[in-house]
Every structure is written in C-alpha cells, then in structure tokens.
Amino acid sequence: MMRKHVTIVLALAAVLAAACCLPFPQRSERNPSGLFVVTVDGRAGYINRSGKLMIQPQFDRAFGFTQGLAVVQVGNRFGYIDERGRFVINPQYDDAFSFYEGLAAVRRGDRLGYVDREGTLVIPLQFEEAGDFSQGLARVTVGGSAGYVDKKGKIVINPTYKTARKFSEGLALVQSAAGWGYVDRKGDMVIPPRADFADAWDFAEGLALIKSGDKYGFIDKKGNWAIQPQFESGYSFSEGLATISLNGQGGYVDKEGKIVIQPQYASVAPFAEGLARVKVGDHWGYIDKKGNTVIQPQWEEAFDFNGGLAEVVVAGARGYIDRKGRFVWNPSK
Asked: Exposed (0-12), middle (13-18) or buried (19+): which is 35, by Cβ within 10 Å?
C-alpha cells in the first residue's frame, strides 16, 4: 500500500468513523514494478510477486513504487531508489512522497516543493501543503488557502479555498465558505456548492459520493442525483461497484443504485483487481463481484490486491498472499 493512501485513509476514516464502509482510494497504476515492501528484523526491503527478495532489507522504512521510483527512509531523511535498489535521489528531505506525472512532493522544514525523477528541485520549496499531480495540476496551500499549480509551479487556480482535492475525471472537489463544489481545470465552478451537500468526494467512474443530511448518495457531472441519498455510509465507485451500508452492515451497489451484494459485512472496501476486502466478525477475507467468498475471513487486517498480491496481518506481522490465499511471503516484522 502506498504511503499517500495511508494518509488519506486515516483522514477519511475519521469522517466515516461510524460507517462500515472503509475508504481506500484506488490509483489506476497497479504496481507495474512488481515489487512489494517487506520488513525483516525491523529493516525494510522488497520482494517480487514470487516472494523472492529483490532488494535486501536495509531501510528504516520503505514505500511502494510509482513510476519506477520508491520513497525510502534512512535515519531521519527520505530519498528515492530505483527498482534495483540504487539511490536515484539521496536521502536529504524531511519528508517525501510518491511520483505522479513525473514529479513528487518533498519537504524540508515546513515548506514543500517538487522534484523531478533526476532529483532536480523544479518547483521551489514554498508551499505549506502539496498534493500529487493529477491531470497536469497539483493542489497546494499558500497562506492557509488551497489552489492549484501546473508543472512549472505557476498558480493556475488561485488559492482561495478552505480545502481542495486532486483532479479526477476533469473535476476537482473544493470547499469554500459556501460549501462543497467542483471546479474544472480552468478554475470554473462546474458544480456550485449546494446547501444539501454536507460532505463530498472525488468523481470516480462518472459519479461522486455526496452526503446529504445523514444519508449518502451519488451525483453525476451535472450535479444531478444519479443515486438518491439513502445509505448510512459509502465510498466511491471502483470496478463498477460502490460500497454502501444499511442497518450497520456493508454491501455493494451498481451505478443504478441497485444492491448487487447484500449488506451483510461488518466492514467493506472497494474492489481492486476483481476482489474486495470484507470483514466478518473480527477477521478480513475477500469476495468476488458475485459476492462469493474467494478467500475465507481469517486475517486481523488486510489490504487491497495490488499487482497480484495482497498484504495481510497475522499476530501483528505482515505477509503477502496470492489470489488463492496462499502465502508467497510469510508474515514478518
């Protein structure tokens, strides 16, 4: 699981604390490197899909590869390695984040900027917050307000928003004093804030999750209700289905709002690579899109399939399983 996802999950989990549907945003990039982080005796390295160590455990922390590079921590500094484990950007930053669209956010002190894949600081350290590039723009915070910059660091949407999120399917979710709305890449408000938008999420597969009152539904890109608010919680569409909950139980709906997997789980997560994590009692397992149990609930904690493997937790140790539930890397710490 990539580091940025961890941050988002924790933030959104707080929003949906009472919900059974855990938010785990998906990226279109499904681990093309084929490398997975493992920890052995407190040191982090990487295995391949077969469970063979490809980069020896040597880092204090390590994170997933994006665009051929991965963030690693050595001591209290962060840098980037390539898929052979060689440093491309030496550890020198107080924090560093994954590459997207050729750039990655880095931090020194209390300011962030962006480096390219050669380690050149192409956008100076000047922002209070900095998000991933998506569709050519990145969310940044200046003077406590959020806006967007292009890859040259030029502000293209002025920092006037209380909150802003990455562009997804041509639109970005922003929060102003008037509430939640969506802007296009020119900064034009395409879906204006509405009184019935208590909370909102990014567009995914043409629809966006909206909280209205104490119920959740989905709007289309014109701002019309595609699925009326009727669920206790939910999360964005992934692979044609979205997580929802009713009566404290999690299930899945299609884009017409039809329940295709009945609410019956203690917790659910979006589909990834054809399988979804579900919690039964105190344990996690995996189901397919017909609701069939593919891997029996048995894990203390489990994560999405990414590149053919999924990370699971057993007695506090982390390992990787294949799509049949077999360990390719036995749990280690």
From this structure: buried
